[in-house]
Amino acid sequence: MNRTYQKSHANVTTPWGRSSSGTTFAQGIVFYHTASQGGFKVVKKLNQQIPAAFRRFNGWYEEDCDGCIPFYFFHETIYTYCCDHGLEGWGKSAEEYFAEFSKNYFRKQLEHYFPVASYLTFDTQYSEAYIQEKWGAYSVFNEAVADVKRHMALLAQPRPQKGDTVQFAQPIEFSDCQEDTFVFMHHNFFEAPGGWIARIKNWQMKEYRLQPAIKEMTLF
């Protein structure tokens, strides 16, 4: 859709740099525009409602391909908000826009851009000719399925609480050392064994084991 950009959405950190502006498409779904790219930010509560095969762990969905994900899974919500707030798309009213770009339209976009996720989520079936053309062999297709299943398993990992010990399956590389065990602090920050603070980006998509912190008991 065409967007009525709002300055209140400027200067937000996105995966594509700082935003210059943006617009709200629904409560909890905001599009941000940057100099190089744009994309949607879906708040955590809504993001958890997106099936794991399609879900981006950080809630960011770039506009070119990923954009069809929030448009499909929150189609009715976005449609209602756009109608209520008079947002227009490509010179059309929201009613006209969503009549043309229906939920079924975005379903076909999902199946085009994310065939493996669609196969796992919707049980979409693809012809042998399509599989041969896209993957070359069923073995390669099966590897792609396994990759998405690993992605889903990582998303299902329990999240640590402050003070929990996190042991990563693979050591985290730093400029002068590598460590695999940390104490979780908050967001992307961990305490390393030596007491120094480590910032680990995208740790949520690394395999790890948790050891919950021991809670102190209070005697009355």
Would you write up a description of this structure?
With about 220 residues, this protein is of the alpha+beta class. The protein has 2 domains: about 5-120, no CATH class; about 165-210. The protein is built from 8 helices and 11 strands. The chain has helices at about 45, 70-75, 75-85, 95-100, 105-115, 115-120, 130-135, 140-155; strands spanning about 15, 15-20, 20-25, 30-35, 40, 60, 165-175, 180-185, 190, 195-200, 210. The protein has a 5-stranded antiparallel beta sheet, with no helix packed on it. A 4-stranded antiparallel beta sheet has the order 3-4-5-6.
Number of strands: 11
Report the order of strands and helices: EEEEEHEHHHHHHHEEEEE
Strand order in the sheet with the most strands:
10-9-8-7-11
Q: Approximately how much beta-strand content do the residues carry?
A: 15-25%
Tell me the radius of gyration.
21 Å
Shape designation: globular
CA distance, first residue to last residue: 61 Å
The biggest beta sheet, please?
5 strands, antiparallel
Secondary structure layout:
Blueprint: E1 13-14, E2 17-18, E3 21-26, E4 29-33, E5 38-42, H1 44-47, E6 60-62, H2 68-73, H3 75-84, H4 94-100, H5 103-113, H6 115-122, H7 128-135, H8 138-155, E7 165-173, E8 178-186, E9 189-191, E10 197-199, E11 208-211
Antiparallel strand pairs: 1-2, 3-4, 4-5, 5-6, 7-8, 7-11, 8-9, 9-10
